[in-house]
Predict the 3D structure of the following.
Amino acid sequence: IMVGSLWYTHFLFGKSWMRHSGIRSTDITVGEARRGYLFGTITALLQSTLIALIVDHAGEAWHMFVIGILVLWLFILLESFNRFIWERASLALVLIHAFRSLATLMAAAFTYHFVS
């Protein structure tokens, strides 16, 4: 949640995301924002659980850790590419989301590894 909150600020990719998605800050209601954070939190917990499984199974074998993260990110990138094809999302929007996913996965993986 913290990575996404920072990722979509005006300081990073928020302006670009709004431009490419056609969303204005005034378009988002308080209820939509609450639902977004609720479901975003649930999604983050599920992703963190998957990351924990990858980190635990990789152990000290960093190459397995890296392969696990790359495989997850490849799935995310391919799924995001479907948005480019079917929803006519711009390539820039697809890449903004895909790289945010990578940053989130890496933050979760490193946090779990160094905390556990």
